Amino acid sequence: MVLSVDIENATAIVTLNRPEKKNAITMEMRIQLWQAFEDIAENDEVRAVILTGAGSDFCAGMDVGEMGGGGVPGSMMRMRRLHRIGRAIHNLKKPVIAAVSGVCVGVGWSYALCCDLVIASETARFAQIFRQIALAPDGGAVWLLSQQLGQMRAKEIVYSGRMVKAEEALKLGLVLEVLPVAALLARAKELAAAFASGPSLALAQAKRQFQLAPTQSYDDFLEHEFSMQPLMSRTEDHHEGITAFKERRPPEFKGK
User: Fold this and answer.
1) pLDDT tens digits for range 154-211
2) pLDDT averaged over the chain?
3) Which among 209, 175, 179, 189 is positioned nearest to 49, based on CA atoms?
4) Is 79 left (phi over 0), alpha (psi -120 to 50) or beta?
5) CA 134 distance to own-chain centroid
6) Where are any strands of DSSP class E within the chain?
7) Minimal CB count within 10 Å: which of 12, 24, 27, 90?
8) Is the CB of residue 119 less than 8 Å from the CB of residue 145?
9) Which string of DSSP letters, residue by residue, matches 37-53?
10) Which of left, alpha, beta for 55 (phi over 0: left; psi -120 to 50: alpha)?
């Protein structure tokens, strides 16, 4: 299998599994990765997700051996499949953590940026390497980087195609934490478990708020917030949270 999905304690661990090729994404993987996130979206038992790579690397981008075939129609088909993966990750109404070691370049970095949080090992190195093969960035990389860095810093990274090592990524705010390789997955599972135990409906609405914020005025944003909070106040999880607070005990949220 070029992709595996393991479910542990309400967390789905999605692993790119071509370590001998630095987990470069093939056409087969494009289909499997999209389907994995579509299935996770429909699985109410899964309340958090970890995206990672097998072996020592996260993802070396698209497999160059499969580029260029089929003319313009073939290229358009490949882009549609590439984009639907990004949308499936970015729009998932559940917290998603990218656990990155080693190489994370090209669309592999785009997919990591689509996640809510990125944590990295000390070996992680990121790059938008498209200039090396005379392509513009894909996977929404320019949009994603601009949102996090502003355009000037994003342009420098994209135009140069240079490697951004883990410590620089941490300083730039592109990763949340840098850890030893051996501790990376355990930390990702710890974070995911904390999110999975939370009020999943409320977290989904919070995620939606973060998605709306960059595109709206303050007043428009408040109108969306106005419709969200009354809805959340009618959930079983909200009532459990209030009851637990009064009873001085940890809440037990069920995503209802």
Assistant:
1) 999 999 999 999 999 999 999 999 999 999 999 999 999 999 999 999 999 999 999 9
2) 92
3) 189
4) alpha
5) 26
6) 3-8, 11-16, 48-53, 96-100, 103-105, 117-121, 125-127, 164-165, 177-179
7) 27
8) no
9) HHHHHH-TT--EEEEEE
10) left
